[in-house]
Design goal:
With 231 residues, the protein is α/β, with parallel strands linked by helices. The protein is built from six helices and nine strands, in the order E-E-H-E-H-E-E-E-E-H-E-H-H-E-H. It is 35% helix and 23% strand. The mean pLDDT is 89. This is ribonuclease H.
Length: 231
């Protein structure tokens, strides 16, 4: 008798009933992963491995240099970006109060990553590039609270992705302190920590090379530049 394993919805578990009884349990949103096995032991091994992998997805990110990846059906993909037009005293110098900056997000649903379901952006004066990248992440996580499907945040900022998958956990354990000095954008990172913790079981991250071939990344770059133009 086959054993069926379901993971990713309210019917998670192992089932030994006929497929005709199990199949309706897989027709939910979000869509679960499921598989049939010849033995209960094999089903349990697969279930445990999938569960462990699922629980760790929010603590790592996939690197996609060419911007091309296969989007899972029923999964949402939120592209984020932040930037500023830093004139400073020289290129890369301190941000001036009159320098324009902006963040942007674009939400897609797999497998279609060509037409966004929702976009948002906002521009400011005198804000740093990293601050805008963090604000984009924060607004993406807040937007994800409005749906229950699994989602992936796609960013071209390794500062953001290294922090959200690793550094912020160290800071939190140390009482939101770090040995090298003050934590930039601390209040935002504390909010992000709370949001990630609450949504960890359905969250993943991808890094793409900026301004390359990813349509979603190009879209959010255009959105934030339009926001700065209109400021």
């Amino acid at each position: 008798m086959k054993t069926y394993a379901i993971i990713g919805n309210q019917y998670e578990g192992l089932y030994t009933q006929p497929w005709s009884k199990v199949q309706p349990l897989t027709k939910t949103r979000p869509a679960p992963k499921f598989k049939g096995f010849d033995s209960k032991a094999s089903a349990q091994i697969w279930f445990d491995q999938e569960k462990a992998s699922q629980n760790l997805r929010h603590r790592q990110y996939t690197t996609v240099y060419d911007g091309a990846f296969t989007a899972e059906p029923q999964r949402y993909y939120i592209f984020t970006d932040g930037g500023n037009r830093n004139t400073g005293n020289h290129a890369g110098g301190h941000v001036k109060p009159t320098d324009k900056a902006a963040w942007a997000i674009a939400i897609y649903q797999g497998p279609n990553l060509t037409q966004p379901l929702y976009t948002d952006s906002q521009a400011y004066l005198g804000r740093t590039n990293n601050d805008m990248e963090v604000q984009a992440l924060l607004h993406a996580l807040e937007a994800a609270e409005k749906f229950t499907e699994p989602f992936t945040i796609v960013s071209d900022s390794k500062y953001v992705l290294d922090t959200v998958t690793n550094w912020m956990y160290n800071w939190q354990r140390a009482g939101w302190k770090k040995a090298s000095g003050p934590i930039a954008n601390l209040a935002s990172w504390q909010k992000i920590f709370t949001l990630v913790t609450a949504q960890a079981d359905r969250l993943a991250f991808i890094w793409v090379k900026g301004h390359a071939s990813s349509a979603g990344n190009i879209m959010v770059d255009q959105l934030l530049n339009t926001a700065m133009d209109q400021l």
